[in-house]
Amino acid sequence: EQFVCADESPMTLTRYFMGKANEQLDEEHVQDLQNLMASIQMACKKIASLVSRAGITNLTGYEASGSINVQGEEQKKLDVLSNDVLKHALKWRGGKLGIIASEEEDEPIMVDELASGNYIAVFDPLDGSSNIDAGIATGTIFGIFAESAGCLASDWEAKVDQEVLTCLQNVLQPGSNLVASGYCMYSSSCMMVLTTGSGVQGFTLDPQIGEFVLTHPSITIPSRGKIYSVNEANEPAWDPVLRSYIASLKDGSNSSGMTYSSRYIGSMVADVHRTLMYGGLFAYPADKRNANGKLRLLYECSPMSYLIEQAGGIATTGRERVLDVIPSSVHQRVPLVLGSPEDVQELLDKYYEAS
Ligand code: AHG
Ligand code: MN
Ligand code: MN
Ligand code: MN
Fold it and tell me: pTM of the full predicted structure?
C-alpha cells in the first residue's frame, strides 16, 4: 500500500523519501536522509549522463596527467569527474553532511571547513571504471553513517586541528553502523538500489521524466541461485576450501545437485546487482598474492553487504560478517563472499568443517 500513489504519477525516489519522512517522523535521520538522497540522486543522474556520452565528449580513457590514486590505480577521466560531481552535490549545506571519504580521495575531507554536519558519506564514485572504455556496466556505490557526538554541526565551534583530525577518523565505522547504503548502476537501464534499514527498494531512471521511478519494491534475494561470479584467473591462488567449493558448483556435487553457470562482468555493482536479482554467489576472495583480496571495506564491501543482508542474503569475509569489521584505515581491503543465504552458508559450513 505504501508504494501506491493517490494519483497516476509514479512513485519516484523523491516521493518515496517524502513518504518515509512523513511516516516515520520520530525515526531520527529520515528527514535528513531525504536531503542527502536528493544530492546523491542528482549526482548519479549527472554521472549516468556523463558515462553514457563519454565517447561523444572525449571522456573515455585515462587522466591526461596519468594520475595514480591512493589505491595505486591509474585514474580514468571519469573516475575523477564522477568524484567531483559527487563532492559538489554533497557539499550542499542542506545535506547536513560533515565528512566524506572516497576511493578517489587519499584522506577523508571536511565538506564544509566552517562546520561539520551530522552525517558522513563514503563512496566509490565510479565502480568498474576499467570497463568504461568498453561501454560495459559501471556504477556508483554509497554509504551514509551518522556523525558521532562531539563532531556534530551543533557542537562545532572552532575546533583545533587535532580535534578535526579526530572527527575525520569517524569515517572508520563498521558497516553495522550504516544508516543507508546503495548503488546506482549505469547499464542497459540506470537503476538506483538502496536500503535505509527497512528492506531494499529498486528505482529505475525514466529518461522521459528524469526521475528514478520505483520499479522493484522490497527486493529479496533468492534463497539459492545457479550462478557463481568470481575472477577464475585467480583460482590457482585461492585457498583449498574455496577451490573445492567452486569445483563442486561446476560438477554438481554441491548440496543443490545443480551445475552452476559462471558470470563475471568485472564491475562489482553489476555483478552484485545480478546476484541480488537472480541469486547465487559473488566473491572477490583473498588469494596467495592478496591476503585481503581487492575490494575496499568502507565504500564497496560494507555498503553492498548492508544491502545484501537487508535483502535476506549473507555477506562474509570468509572468517566473519563483513558488517562487523571495524576499518583500521580508509582504504582497507577485505576478502568478500556475498549472495544467496544457502549458497554462502554452504561455503561457510565447509570453512567451518576445515577449521
Ligand atoms: P573500481 O573500478 O572502483 O576500482 O572497482 C573495481 C573492482 C570491482 O568493481 C570489481 O569487482 C573488481 O574490481 C574486478 O577486479 P578484477 O579485474 O581483478 O577481477
Ligand atoms: Mn578504482
Ligand atoms: Mn569499485
Ligand atoms: Mn571506483
Answer: 0.94
